Amino acid sequence: MEIIFLLMFISFLIAATFLGAFFWANRNAQFRNLSLDAYKVLEDEQDQQSEE
């Protein structure tokens, strides 16, 4: 029976770690404007083709 409580504690600890990492990433603007980087890749490719 003790192993169940140990596993529950470990699972809550892992869940809290992932939740903390999500809030940290959200607070530091990691999820803002996700499509901008995709457009930058296309612009770089277009710039190289126009130079040639």
What does this structure look like?
With about 50 residues, the chain is mainly α. The protein has one domain. The protein is about 85% helix and about 0% strand. It contains 2 helices and no strands. The protein is rod-shaped, with a radius of gyration of 22 Å.
Short description:
With 52 residues, the chain is mainly α. The chain contains two helices and no strands.
Characteristics of this structure?
52 residues; mainly alpha; 2 helices; 0% strand
Succession of helices and strands: HH
Please report the number of helical segments.
2
What is the general shape?
Answer: rod-shaped
Mean pLDDT: 81
Q: Helical content, roughly?
A: over 70%
Strand content: under 5%
Our count of domains comes out at 1
Which helices and strands, and how do they pair?
Layout: H1 2-27, H2 34-51
